[in-house]
Design the sequence.
């Protein structure tokens, strides 16, 4: 990867696995200008997972899942931080449910509801109100 400041070549000075989000964090340093910046390697879920329902098939969107979790946690002061961690937790729990690079929207909603309900009963109730077909 080239330097964002001068276009010079960079090297990795530090890297860490982020277990919860299944990502790798890397600190890079530039050979030319000594600039330092961070990169984050994550799964490109949109190209990796198709979400299926009776009506349509579409790309998996972490952002979409995050928004629905965030909306369900809005009553909490730590809504954004909780939604970030909960979204990562839900996605990791979805891994074993992926079949032929696909997940049903029903399985995503079911797991999301279960996880939210366990975390905060009110969040579970909010989620269910927006997704009444989830059991
Ligand atoms: Zn540079």
Sequence:
């Amino acid at each position: 990867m080239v330097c964002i400041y001068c276009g010079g070549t960079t090297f990795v000075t530090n890297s860490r696995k982020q277990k919860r989000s299944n990502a790798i964090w890397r600190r890079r340093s530039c050979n030319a200008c000594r600039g330092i910046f961070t990169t984050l390697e994550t799964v490109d879920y949109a190209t990796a997972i198709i979400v299926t329902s009776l009506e349509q098939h579409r790309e998996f969107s972490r952002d979409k899942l995050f928004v629905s979790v965030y909306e369900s946690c809005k009553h909490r002061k730590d809504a954004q931080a909780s939604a970030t961690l909960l979204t990562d937790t839900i996605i990791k729990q979805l891994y074993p449910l992926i079949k032929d690079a696909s997940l049903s929207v029903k399985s995503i909603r079911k797991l999301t509801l279960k996880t939210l309900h366990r975390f905060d009963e009110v969040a579970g109730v909010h989620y269910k109100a927006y997704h009444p077909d989830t059991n």
